[in-house]
Amino acid sequence: MVPPSAEFTRQDNTTIEGFFEATPKYVWAGDWENWANQYAEDGILLPPNSPTIRGRDAILAWGKLFPEIEVFEFPDVRVWGEGNLAYATSAYRLKFKGLEEDTGKQLGVFRRDSNGVWKVMALSFSSDLAPNPVT
Question: How high is the mean pLDDT of the chain?
Answer without folding.
Answer: 92
